[in-house]
Every structure is written in structure tokens, then in C-alpha cells.
Amino acid sequence: MKSQNINPSPAALATDLKLSLPSPLHEFQPNWNNPNHCQLYIKRDDLIHGIISGNKWRKLSHQLAHVVSQGYRGIVSFGGMHSNHLHALSYCCYKLGIPLTAIVRGHSSAPSTPTMDDMRQWNTQIELVDRLTYKMRSNHEYCRELLQKFPDHHLIPEGGSHELAIDGVSEIMDEIIIGLSHTPDYVICPVGSGGTLAGLVSSNTSTHCLGIAVLKGEGYLEEAVSTLLTKNSCNSEWLINHDYHFGGYGKRPNELQTFCDDSLSSLNLRIEPTYSGKLFYATRELLGQGYFKANSRIVLLHTGGLQGAR
Ligand SMILES: *Cc1c(COP(=O)(O)O)cnc(C)c1O
Description:
Elements: H1 10-16, E1 25-28, E2 39-44, H2 55-69, E3 74-79, H3 84-96, E4 100-105, H4 114-121, E5 125-129, H5 131-134, H6 140-149, E6 153-156, H7 165-180, E7 186-191, H8 195-201, E8 208-213, H9 220-229, E9 238-241, H10 254-261, H11 263-266, H12 276-288, E10 297-302
Parallel strand pairs: 2-10, 3-4, 3-6, 4-5, 7-8, 7-10, 8-9
Antiparallel strand pairs: 1-2
Helix pairs in contact: 1-2, 2-3, 2-7, 3-4, 7-8, 8-9
Residues 54-56, 84-85, 159, 161, 190-197, 275, 303-305 line the site of pyridoxal-5'-phosphate.
């Protein structure tokens, strides 16, 4: 590891990696049905860095600082062949000189992806595993065995949603409150592994945190978020909406794909169908249905993720 990073704070690492923080927050005025006259804003975490986009940095910042300051020998983590989490982590590890092993769901005969190509270039050790092995990724015994194989390594769960991710994500809420000079009524984000929603909730404000499930995970996702929150006794109100996963993770029916394809001209914004597309689509629908309280201030968290859609 690089010697100048003997005891770095997350903020010092962000400077090393040339992240642009705080991320911009701006008003958003799409021509959507808005019967309750809500005011929309976007928190642009998609813009914090050209490569390390969005919520993945927020989840990794405190974990990377922990790894460097505690002198771990490396990191082991998990993901699919398009994983935004592994992509961001791989780049950070490359820049910070931390050895990374990625356990990736996939078969050696499958074609590579731009995500995997980048990770190889950033010196990540990729270990392909089959579906059944990958299923054990959060199994206690399996993780213990992995740590025997990779001693003194820090293990980061899929999506980066480790308990150490929470504090980094809650910094988004601090930035939003400063940016708005006010606590918003709602913050909305996509939910995949739950760390982002948990981090927003942990900020313990009067803001209602609404997650949009991007996969079929009723019950399971709520449990994932609750588990990450157990350390914080007092939290903001939160809820996960399960009506806009469009059939499951990575599913992109025409309606959703078209919504994303048109977003640059209609919303002046780039979104992709796996995460941000579902977030914006759901918000448009809920707004039209009068779901939000009258005159609310609503912040959409743009979590980035455009690399995965290449
Ligand atoms: C990983 C990811 C999410 C999901 O965040 P979780 O903390 O896993 O729920 C949302 N948006 C993008 C772009 C992501 O890459």
C-alpha cells in the first residue's frame, strides 16, 4: 500500500481519488403530472467521478479507510459481470494500491464484459464461480472459509452493503440538507442490496426515505435494510415500494427502455434501466397518482450506474 496513506480519513481518500464532492443538487422540472404541486430536486451522485459513480463511493469510503488504516492485506468482494460495485471498488483499489479479489458469478466460456475488462486492467484478481457457489456469498461458513483462503482480508458483501457503508451514505443526507437549506420531505432511491436506503434512513431526520425495489424482493429487502440498521436505535421513517421492478433485476421491458432512451431529450439526464430508470419511472407514476403530500420537497438520488449499461 502507498505509504502516504498511513491513516487516511474517508475525506482524504476522496481527495486522493479526485472525487468531486459534495455532489450537485439541483431543481428538476420535468413535464410530469404533478397534482399535489410537489417540488422536485435531483442529488447528482452520478457526477462525483468519471469512473467511481455514485452511491458505490458512499458505501466504500469508510470501508476503504478502515482497510488502509487497519493494514489489511487486501479486499475480497462479490458481484456479477456488470457489477457497478465491483467496478468502482476495482478502480479505487487500483488507485490506492490495495489488492482486490473479486468473486464473480459467471462461466469462463461466457463473453467478457466492459466491466470485467476494466477490472482486469486495474489488476483485480477475478475468480469466476457458478451460480450455486455464488448463492453462498452471504453464508457465514462460506465467508469464514474465504477468509481462511485470503487471510487478513476485509470482506465486502455484494453491492458494498457492509455495516461500515452506512456512515458514508448518510453524508448524502447531510449534503442534501445543506444544499436545500432545509430538510426535504422525501428522499427516493433505488434499492438493490439495501445499503443506500439504510444509510439515508440512519441520518435520523424528519425526511421520509422511500426506496424503489429494482428486483423482486418483498420482505427480503426490508430485512436487508433492517439488519444494516440494527446498530442505530433511532431512524427516519422508511418504506420500500415493490411496484416498479418491471419483473426483476436487470429486466428492461420496452416501456422502461424507451423511457431511459428518451431521458436525455425529455429530462436532460442520462439514466439506465437497471437502477435509475426504475427510480425516475416510479417517481413519475407516484407523483401522478398524488402519492406525495401536497407541496412536498422531494429529492431523487441519482445513484449513477451508467457503466453497467455499456
Ligand atoms: C448498486 C446500485 C444501487 C443499489 O444500491 P443498494 O445500496 O445496493 O441498494 C442503486 N443504483 C446504482 C446505480 C447502483 O449501482
